[in-house]
Amino acid sequence: MNRSTPLAWGREADVGTSMHDPKRSDESRTRRREAPTQGEICGDAERGEESKDKERRGGLRTGSTLQMKSASANSNIYAAMAAPPTAFENHLERWIFRHRIESVVSVEFRPKDSDLVLERLLFLSDVDVPEGSPEYHQMDDDSRASMLSTGVVAGENEQQVFVLTCAHSLKQVYNLHHPIDVADLADLYAPWIMCDHRELMFLARQDNERVSIEANISRLDIPNDLLLIEVNKANFTAYCNRPHPPVIFSSEFPSRFATVVMLSWPLRRHRTAVRGNISHSQRNIDDLAEENPEGLATVLSEVDITSDKGSSGAPLFDGLGKGIGLLYGGDGKFSYVIPTHVIRQCLLNWGWQYHG
Ligand SMILES: [Zn+2]
């Protein structure tokens, strides 16, 4: 592993990438028309999964139909060959995608008070930063920036819906020697949640702009890099009345070679769906990176899939559709995941009553 490669996928949103910025939205739409993303392909943007399944049951695909018309003499042969079942159709992966994508959300952490954030950045700086210096201007920019991650709906009660994501998206305001408590972090940033349904509405031009909903930082565990967000349930229902079923995290981590699916939402690329295999169940952070500035204390599981900035917090699923981890980061060849037993223990510590 290249130790000079950053491991954690913290993503800083470009200044001005507010979800309500119409200029950026137009650019995004243009780009999408030119080049559909992997997620759109996996998400069956052109045809629904149901219709494809019906075609398979009917035994013919569109291309095969045309072929038969020009070869009627051999129609029985073509009919027999028309729709061979293959190992490449990935029924299980697509089932997981269909049943879990509604639980995946985009999280944008917006500064509540950039002056407070700047004050914190100056406090954490190792060196004196004079006002007006280039370093000061850089910090001033950083204090206004939004941070992005992927989140997953992990629970709910009568009043709240809970979204789980990684903490290190906000690592610029804490470090090993100066950790931050949840109340102070909640004073600095507000998480804004966008769900898959509203992104689809935006892409279908039913929404004129990307619409997200404000939530609150609820719990924080820096050593395990986990952050819990609570969304008022009534507000969430008013924002989107479609289902966002909580993901159950498995009591068992898959063995090596097991296939897993990751659903992530890097910047403007929702529905990014990838499949990979477990290559190691627990690596120590000391074996992965020379430095550990945030004081990560959890083991990380290794998966042979690639990942991108803004994907931190993306859920990984086993073949039963249960959560088995959240993406921490990657080195370009492998991705590293906070494993399910760490997540479950953390939720228990937060008072979660976990069944299943
Ligand atoms: Zn929704």
Automatic annotation (TrEMBL):
Pfam families: Trypsin_2
InterPro entries per UniProt: Peptidase_S1_PA (IPR009003)
Ranges where the record places region Disordered: 1-68
Domain of life: Eukaryota
Compositional bias per record (Basic and acidic residues), positions renumbered to this chain: 20-35, 44-58
PANTHER family in alphabetical order: OS08G0148500 PROTEIN (PTHR36141), SERINE PROTEASE (PTHR36141:SF6)
Protein name in the entry: Uncharacterized protein
Source organism of the structure: Paspalum notatum var. saurae
